[in-house]
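User:
Hi there, any thoughts?
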Amino acid sequence: MGRLAAYDSQALTDLLRRQDGLIARAQAADCALTAPALRHRIRPGENVDVLTPPNSRRRDVGFARLHPTAFTPTVAYRDGDLVYAPLARAIADTVRQLRMARHARMSAHGIIVLHYPPSRVRQAGHEVAGEIRSALAVGRDRPLPLVRALPAS
């Protein structure tokens, strides 16, 4: 039978309530919550995205995904000790991350990925067209990717 962790349950509960269930390692230690007890309380699959300054030397840890950004939100919402970015910013960052991951997968398969926001096409259409022509020329010089036909399951 496992041991019960001895920590300040009331202080931890109050802190988690004030911070919507988020806690820093130092805050957990202040409540006498050990690293194994903290790992036990973290639910697998639940991630928290955190915006950090671009020169931050911190890295992803466990459930926290750090995203360096040079564009700190000018508007923020405060709830107790937590500061939140606006919902529109969170959605835009998520879309950008998904697009970057998709582009990386496509590039790994030899696909040239170009992305132009409509504003750039409107403002520098000739320049965009030139870049597209250059990418097409590079693509013509590449060997064709191998394509395998797999039976449907």
